[in-house]
Design goal:
Length: about 650
């Protein structure tokens, strides 16, 4: 410890020079027990008058949240606030010098933290009234997440320093909550073909409707789907028909290979229909099937069934192909004979393709490859494939249902008919999504996939928010779709999506939120875009009803008053070839009960991750209208686990 003469000598050197301002000219110290006046950051000691020296409090504190665990103050951000009381027996105002050190394993001081751009590498508080608390906030870049530090204080009243330091106070900065490692953005990465990510969506099987005239079945039950015609008085046969789902291998093979000696593969309007079980749709295609169409003859004598039944059946598959850029579309029906009882002699089928709303849709001529007559003597000679076209005739937007009716009859049995339509394969045609009319299966929920190779860190942000937050925006696994909000002229409330963005990512008079308030370590990519600047990326997207900026009274699902309520992250290049998405350690860590995410990142990365790729490659391509649902998928993150905290992952998987 320096002698009092040494202290006075040091003070005299500084006397009259004012507070030191150039840290480079000041010698810092490495001895944690050296007296405060050895590094007079608060100003020179002036032994020009008698008086009492000020004194630091005995219980220095660190925060937020100013709570202790195991003897250490737990601080929830790197911009820690340090506090201590200060008193002066003369009633003078005083300030405190705060000195921060790293710690050894036992908590003792290890190495002094040199606070950047401050004299002697320390912080000095404002003057406060004797007995009050003085505090400082440690600027960004001086403390690190997950590290334990210790600090002490010394008082100064403008003339005299405290002769000793306060007790040490240990504090720990919270660990990172997010650390996702991704590669460099690739400007030249090819555009994704969103069609590659659209999987068939299973729908309910078609509903059957009775076809007049109908008669009560004899020996059969209407509850089993049978629709029966009039009894043939000459032959004593009542005809009945029905359509029944059948996913047996025999039926599926029949719809793939047909019948007859050649068994050549059948043509398909939709290439993913062969061997498919049940009914499915995509945005522009439908596979309805597989089914058996059954036509039976119930032999009746004296008004009662004898128990003899003539059987015939066909494997049936229906396919529909819409057009995204025209009002016309096609359907195809495949009929493959499975059985025709010789006692029928022959069976003829009459097929009708209809739009249920004739004022909105016209039906063209149907054509058949293969006759619709099968001989009971040799029923397996051929299959029949029929096609028909339809055209929507509306002016703005309409929904259409396709209906199909088959009537069967034979020389010995009267006609019996069955009609069906698939409710979940309802078609919506519009002239709203794009300037050209088009039609889509609007109950199909398409999947948007962001281009990871081109903008990996933006994808990481979206994955984090979707996977970790209880709102799970766009998650198919959690059944939480995004709901599309188009431009104001095309949405119900007339709400501009930019207003949503303004809530989460506000601009200020001096620049954007990201430039003014985003993390200072946010990395831009001037090598890709010379004018690149920090930008604010929000998730859920602004053009959705899921956006935190969408008001509740306009249908918003997760409204917040400010983007400050979102999970805060930033994207930074740690070294060439290695980027990280981090939580903003300057702030309290996320609670994971937030409903939105806000991230500071490169403007080029942010705009490229959506921009035209979404509007032309997805929303227009799949004719999304107001409130249409869609999924958001991140295939590269399949191995990542967001259930834990901190959320850490390396993509691609090492």
């Amino acid at each position: 410890m320096l002698s009092r003469i040494g202290v006075i000598a040091a003070s005299l050197v500084l006397l009259g020079s004012g507070t030191a301002t150039a840290a480079a000219d000041l010698t810092t110290r490495t001895d944690p027990s050296a007296p405060p006046s050895a590094t007079p950051a608060a100003g020179p000691e002036k032994n020009t008058r008698a008086g009492n020296r000020p004194v630091s409090g005995k219980t220095p504190k660190a925060g937020p949240t100013f709570t202790q665990t195991d003897g250490a103050w737990q601080v929830n951000r790197t911009e820690a606030v340090l506090r201590n009381t200060v008193s002066d027996a003369d009633g003078d105002k005083a300030n405190l010098t705060f000195e921060v050190w790293t710690t050894n394993a036992d908590g003792s001081p290890k190495a002094k933290v040199e606070i950047k751009d401050r004299p002697y590498g320390v912080l000095v508080s404002d003057y406060v009234t004797s007995g009050k608390t003085a505090e400082v906030e440690i600027p960004h870049g001086n403390l690190k997440p997950g590290v334990t530090y210790t600090f002490h204080t010394s008082a100064y009243d403008g003339s005299l320093y405290e002769t000793d330091w306060s007790p040490w106070a240990k504090f720990k900065i919270r660990d990172r909550a997010v650390d996702i490692k991704v590669p460099e953005p690739d400007k030249g990465a090819p555009t994704l073909n969103q069609d590659d990510h659209q999987q068939p969506q299973k729908i309910a099987q078609p509903t059957m409707a009775a076809v007049d005239p109908t008669q009560p079945p004899m020996g059969r039950s209407a509850a089993d789907g049978w629709n029966c015609g009039e009894l043939n008085e000459e032959t004593g046969i009542q005809p009945c028909s029905r359509l029944v789902p059948d996913d047996s291998k025999k039926t599926r093979d029949a719809l793939t290979k047909g019948t007859g000696s050649a068994k050549a593969a059948l043509p398909h309007l939709v290439d993913w229909c062969p061997n498919l079980m049940d009914s499915h749709i995509k945005r522009y295609e439908a596979c309805i099937g597989s089914f058996l169409f059954e036509y039976e003859g119930i032999v009746v004598k004296d008004g009662k069934p004898t128990g003899e039944v003539l059987n015939s059946s066909w494997a049936l598959g229906q396919e529909v192909k819409l057009s995204r850029n025209t009002a016309s579309f096609d359907q195809q029906l495949i009929l493959v004979p499975v059985a025709v009882d010789a006692k029928f002699l022959s069976v003829t089928l009459n097929v009708e393709f209809d739009c249920l709303l004739a004022d909105r849709c016209t039906t063209g001529q149907q054509g058949w490859d293969g006759a619709l007559v099968w001989s009971g003597a040799d029923p397996f000679t051929h299959s029949a494939v029929g096609t028909s076209s339809h055209t929507w005739t509306g002016t703005s937007a309409d929904t259409l249902d396709l209906s199909t009716k088959i009537t069967a009859y034979s020389p010995v049995a009267n006609p019996a008919a069955t009609r069906w339509h698939a409710t979940d394969a309802e078609i919506r045609c519009d002239k709203i999504a794009t300037t050209k009319p088009g039609c889509a299966f609007h109950k199909y929920i398409p999947t948007w996939v962001m281009n990871f190779d081109k903008t990996p860190v933006a994808v990481a942000h979206a994955w984090l928010i979707q996977s970790k937050l209880p709102t799970h925006p766009g998650s198919k696994a959690h059944n939480k779709p995004m709901f599309f909000l188009p431009v104001a002229a095309k949405n119900g409330p007339g709400h501009d999506p930019q207003k949503n963005r303004d809530v989460i990512c506000p601009d200020s008079t001096n620049g954007s939120w990201a430039s003014q308030h985003g993390h200072p370590d946010t990395t831009t990519v001037p090598e890709i875009s010379a004018s690149d600047k920090p930008s604010c990326d929000e998730f859920a997207y602004a053009s959705t009803y899921n956006s935190g900026g969408m008001p509740a009274n306009l249908g918003g699902l997760n409204p917040v008053s400010s983007g400050d309520a979102c999970v805060q992250t930033y994207a930074t290049r740690v070294k060439q070839g290695e980027w990280h998405l981090y939580d903003d350690e300057r702030l309290a860590g996320p609670t994971w009960n937030e409903v939105c995410g806000r991230s500071a990142m490169s403007g080029w990365i942010n705009s490229t991750s959506m921009g035209g790729a979404f509007s032309s490659g997805f929303s227009a391509k799949y004719r999304l209208l107001d409130q249409d649902p869609y999924w958001v998928s991140f295939p590269q993150f399949g191995h990542c686990d967001a259930s834990k905290t901190p959320v850490t992952c390396t993509v691609p998987k090492p």
